[in-house]
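Glycosyl hydrolase family protein structure dump, as promised
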Amino acid sequence: MTYFLFATGIENSDPTIDGGRIRRDQMAECGHYNRWREDFALVQDIGCNFLRIGPALHSTLLGPGRHDWAYADQAFAELRRLRIVPIVDLCHFGVPDWIGDFQNPDFPALFAAYTRAFAERFPWVQLYTPVNEMFITAVFSARYGWWNEQLATDRGFVTALKHLVRANILAMEAILEVRPDALFIQSESSEYFHADSPAAIGPAEIRNAERFLSLDLNYGRRVDSGMYQYLLDNGMTRDEYDFFLRHRLKRWCIMGNDYYVTNEHLVSADGRTRASGEIFGYATITRQYHDRYLLPVMHTETNLQEGPTGEEAVLWLWKQWANVLRVRNDGVPVVGFTWYSLTDQVDWDVALREKRGRANPLGLYDLDRRIRRVGTAYRKLIADWRDVLPAQSLCLQVPVLMPVDQDCWPPGEGPPAN
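structure tokens r here:
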């Protein structure tokens, strides 16, 4: 039996701002900690069979080998009872105060130990996103100077990136030792940079090479010569680079890619970037990523702010779905789609950089848990398409939650049997 992964998510970003003095815990700010049972019932109501969710790293990992599982124990027991399959997101933009930030070279090993502890505590979980949006985390923390270490240097960016990707790889290995048939959905931002003039072609080419760095390193793919020089010039050692080439975990991976209206950019001759809005769109950019990595694909995040009529978000939903069907019909193995997140979010209009407490109407439900028009539209989309899609999805071996189809991976291409 095969499944298309219709998903939503519980927004669990938790970076720090203001020099580490303010923690932006979105599960707290969006009311999830007080309403998690209600939230899971809404996931069922909308018809989603998969949910991106994870316990906040900063409040769960208290120290080396020390954990507070209070939220996770209750929440994951309820998900299992409701037969909602979690895609477990273990690091979403932030780390505990005692680790500091993504410049800390101890982070990868500490995080891997934490993921092993999670997998041992919840052995029935199969689907993971160990580190969410590695590229965006490094850009916002160490190139734009917005979060966590708040650096704005190439060396800071490369340091954050190599630690994030190493953490992701070590986490995958640790989880596989506990659950050999685990699958990893790398939720990563799919970007494109357009030159705004002939003089900007060179800077745009650099940015379009950089956008692949996190996944190139994660999948053990050799970067191009310009990016290799850039990495070494900014602090990556040859041994560190060789670490990424030695680790080949692609066979356990699904390339999750996120697409928002902000994912395409205009580049000026001086290298500065600004938003371009949607030009190529999800289908074109996804084919670029798929051609590079040749992996199954899942659309792991999208949303659009609801406008005065509520139809703007509905039209965006249908546009994204049409793009998913387009690439799927062109032969790209798209296995899932996600509207992110279940509820509205807080202060994402300023990328969490300022604590304003402003609700952003991006969810399937508002913060009072009233369904939005896009929520009604998504529920209908799922109901209409759930049993219509071609059976080219992936094999999911989740005990209790769903049956096993041993034939849904080509020979030698899927995870090993237990």
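The two ends are 18 Å apart (CA to CA).
lmk if u need the other ones
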